[in-house]
Specification:
This protein is of the alpha/beta class and about 270 residues long. It contains 9 helices and 10 strands.
């Protein structure tokens, strides 16, 4: 009795394959790209030959990425369309082009594409570029989620979170938005003036702040209490707790602080 024939196992197709919109006005090129994308496991939609068609397909299919020729039919070219895709839909765009002149590259760069492929191209290069672009976009999405969470946490606390330089007047690099409700200043006011912080500390307390910074530079963290002038000209007592921030090379780069209003306690 013969053995049953063995068939090679096939990987199951992904339930929700990545959707890529092809924006290309050369039908033959678009067809070849669509075949390649399907072989790679992507879902190819389109092609669109103009900006108007592309925007309609985005609304209909909600693609994960747009593969776009720079030169399209109509008044709007691929670079202008890419900017619209970014601003309206937060879509990553990979450019296709047969042109590599400096003027085109400069305009394309300003649109912040996730890749730039010159025609004619190897399909292997296309696949690598798309994988890299999708990975970059996923990472950016994760960062945006983390930023939203962080902003929510910062706005929910009564303490002011800030970072400042470790030299000069210890100018602020970042300050949480709730500084407005506590001290009456906008975050942009605080960051825009390098001397803002030291100019608003009570003159009798400036040495305390300098000593706190010196201690943080030596020991990694420190704290002190001082008076800070709010927007109506009165002083409020603040408890300031700081730790030393370092850059990727391990060098001291900034101070990260938490300021808490302790006026009622004082």
């Amino acid at each position: 009795m013969g053995h049953p024939r063995m068939h090679p196992l096939k990987e199951p197709a992904p339930v929700n394959p990545v959707c890529i919109l092809i924006v290309e006005d050369e039908s033959i090129v678009a067809r070849h790209i669509a075949i390649s994308l399907t072989q790679y496991g992507y879902r190819a939609v389109g092609p669109a030959a103009s900006a108007e068609e592309a925007l309609l397909l985005v609304e209909e299919f909600h693609p994960d990425l747009v593969l776009m020729d720079i030169h399209l039919q109509g008044a709007i070219d691929g670079i202008d369309l890419a900017e619209a895709m970014r601003d309206r839909f937060r879509l990553p765009v990979v450019f296709l082009s047969a042109y590599a002149e400096d003027s085109t590259l400069l305009r394309a760069k300003a649109a912040n594409p996730y890749g730039y492929i010159l025609k004619p191209f190897e399909h292997r290069d296309l696949r690598v570029t798309l994988e890299m672009a999708l990975s970059m976009h996923r990472q950016e999405q994760l960062l945006r989620v983390r930023e939203r969470r962080l902003n929510f946490l910062l706005s929910s606390t009564s303490a002011v979170i800030y970072t400042c330089q470790i030299s000069g007047d210890f100018g602020l690099i970042f300050v949480s938005e709730n500084v407005g409700s506590l001290l009456g200043y906008s975050a942009s006011e605080c960051i825009g003036d390098p001397s803002f912080r030291m100019n608003h500390i009570h003159p009798d307390d400036v040495q305390r702040v300098i000593a706190m910074v010196d201690s943080a530079l030596k020991n990694g963290r420190a704290e002190t209490e001082y008076r800070f002038r709010d927007n109506d000209g009165s002083y409020r007592w603040m408890r300031d707790q700081v730790c030393l921030g370092r850059d990727p090379a391990g060098h001291a780069s900034e101070l990260i602080g938490v300021m808490t209003d302790i006026t009622e306690h004082k």
